[in-house]
Each structure stands twice: as structure tokens, then as C-alpha cells.
Amino acid sequence: MARERREIRRIENAAARQVTFSKRRRGLFKKAEELAVLCDADVALIVFSATGKLSQFASSSMNEIIDKYSTHSKNLRKSHQQPSLDLNIEQSKYTALNEQLAEASLGLRQLRGEELEGLSVEELHQMERKLEAGLHRVLNTKDQLFMQQISELQQKGTQLADENMRLKNQMPQVPTAGRPVVAADAENVLAEDGQSSESMLTALHSGSSHDNDDGSDISLKLALP
After folding, report:
1. How far apart are CA 189 and CA 196, in angstroms?
2. In 115-193, beta strands by DSSP E
3. pLDDT tens digits for 114-150?
4. What CA–CA distance (Å, rounded) separates 44 from 213?
5. For residues 30 and 37, what is the distance between their CA atoms, to the nearest angstrom?
6. pTM as predicted
7. If DSSP codes are grouped into helix, strand and coil, which group holds residue 190?
């Protein structure tokens, strides 16, 4: 038959309450001792009865375990307090950064000519001087960039001229009878004579024909008596 489960509540009878306390205390201390031996743990129990009587159990030294507990509790409280301090510091940094961002944004808008109503004459003069100084730096930077680009273009022009000269020196020259003649000289010679190569060949052919005719006439004259 199953054992009836007792409801966990305060025992009203004082004698029964004392008997139950003694039994449960011995069982609790026994379980604590078993836990310390089986798991090599530091276990300490402190129990006060309803009458104020102290009962305790310690697997080693009660004072050492209590000191260890106190140190651990202090460290635990510090670890809980540290995030709160860090959060406060981060919040203050965040607020300061927001203020700096808002101030910088207002200054930028004012440099663009916006939200100038609340500025005094002196503040407007200071802003004017800032703008003039900024414009001067912009112009100087632009001039430096222009000079740098001009220098780079000059260097490229010099390199191209050197490359062109090198290619001209590598071109072969065609020799003729006595001196080198390029294509332009040959065209000039043809233009001055007014004759083409075909007309010169025709003249040579006709000259050879006349020579043959003269030779035949002389042979005929010698054959007559």
C-alpha cells in the first residue's frame, strides 16, 4: 500500500513539531555529509530551532566556509553594481556626443546661410572670416592640383617626343646610286622630266628601230656594183 503523502505545512502540535524537527535535521545533515563526500564539495549548514537552539554541520571548517561565502557575496554585489555604473557612464557619453552633433549640425547649417536670425553682428563677422579663410584654402588647393596636372602632362609630352624620335631612328633607309633617295625625291624627278616610265621605254624602242633601219640601208649600198 502506498504511503500517504503528508501536506507540507506548519505542525500545530508543539511536541510533534519538535519530534519532526529532530528527525528532519538528522536527515538533512546526513544528506549534506553525503554530498560533501561524494562530490568533494564544501558544505555548511546552520539551523536554528524555534526555541533559538543552534545546530550546524560543516564538511571542513565552518569559519573558512563562511569567509569564502562572504568573499563571494561581496564580489557578486560588485559585479551587479558595475554594469549600472558603466551604463551611467555610457549614458553621459551618449548625451555629450548628441550635444556635440547638434552643435556641429547647427554650425554647418549656418555656414550654408541658414538659421542666422539669432546671431549677433560679431558672430556674423566671425562666420564671414571663417568663410573667407575656407575659400582661400580651397583656391590654394585647386591651384596646386592644376600645377600638378600640368606637370604630369608635360612629362607625358616629353615621353611621347622621345618615343617618336626613337621610332624615327629605327626606320630603315633605302640606298640609291651615289646617295639615298627617298620616295619624295623620286616623285620630284618624274615631275621635272615630264615623262613617265612608259614614255621612256617607248623612246628607247623607237631609237633602236632607227638604228636597225640605217644599218640595212648601208648594207644595200655596199651590195650594188
Report:
1. 10
2. none
3. 878 877 888 888 888 888 888 888 999 999 999 999 9
4. 154
5. 11
6. 0.34
7. helix
